[in-house]
């Protein structure tokens, strides 16, 4: 982990690709109080997301744009992830979390009409990935404080995608094997970009 210190720049060469066993590993909880090297590794992951969304830097380092990254995607068996995105109102949403756990979720579900993407997957994958529309999360932040956070819509999708990684689950595992565009029965589910039915 020492490699991912405060000055290290994560590039696509550091991203573990599908087929690597670490992506199928249920990650170990991060020990508290937080160790400096663990905190720096997560800060490094956050900086990667920021760099990947900066056209100049991403072009310089040939980065694929990402909104979330989990520790096992850079080969670390640690239960932590970072997310960085801009919401519909143009606000920056930035979270670096240790030992995240979903403590409740909605019954209603959503999916991205274009499927999901993943920094660890280089091939196009088509199909709907059902996700809970809202999730409530308990985790620890970079200060080592326990936080409870609620996510809805696209942010909830990102959080569930990253927590799946930490549980050794890839997004395509959730696509219906027989029919990739078949949605689960008996639940309220809609495309993220469809208006909610009245």
What is the CA–CA distance across the termini? 50 Å
Q: What is the CATH superfamily classification?
A: Peptide deformylase
CATH-defined topology: Peptide Deformylase
Q: Which architecture name does CATH use?
A: Alpha-Beta Complex
Strand order of the largest sheet: 1-2-3-6-7
The residue-averaged pLDDT reads: 95
Q: How does the SSE layout of this entry go?
A:
Elements: H1 36-52, H2 55-61, E1 68-70, E2 80-86, E3 92-105, E4 109-111, E5 131-132, E6 134-140, E7 146-152, H3 154-166, E8 189-191
Parallel strand pairs: 4-8
Antiparallel strand pairs: 1-2, 2-3, 3-6, 4-5, 6-7
Architecture overview:
With 198 residues, the protein is of the alpha+beta class. The chain has one domain: Peptide deformylase (Peptide Deformylase), CATH 3.90.45.10. The chain is 19% helix and 23% strand. It is built from three helices and eight strands, in the order ααβββββββαβ. It has helices at 36-52, 55-61, 154-166, and strands at residues 68-70, 80-86, 92-105, 109-111, 131-132, 134-140, 146-152, 189-191. The strands form two sheets. The chain has a five-stranded antiparallel sheet. Strands 5-4-8 form a three-stranded mixed sheet, with helices on one face. A hairpin with a 5-residue loop joins β6 (134-140) and β7. The longest helix has 17 residues, at 36-52. It is globular, with a radius of gyration of 17 Å. The protein starts with 35 loop residues before the first helix and ends in a 7-residue tail after the last strand. The model has no long low-confidence stretch (mean pLDDT 95). One of its GO terms (molecular function) is peptide deformylase activity. It catalyses: N-terminal N-formyl-L-methionyl-[peptide] + H2O = N-terminal L-methionyl-[peptide] + formate. Its EC number is 3.5.1.88. Pfam families: Pep_deformylase. The active site is at 162.
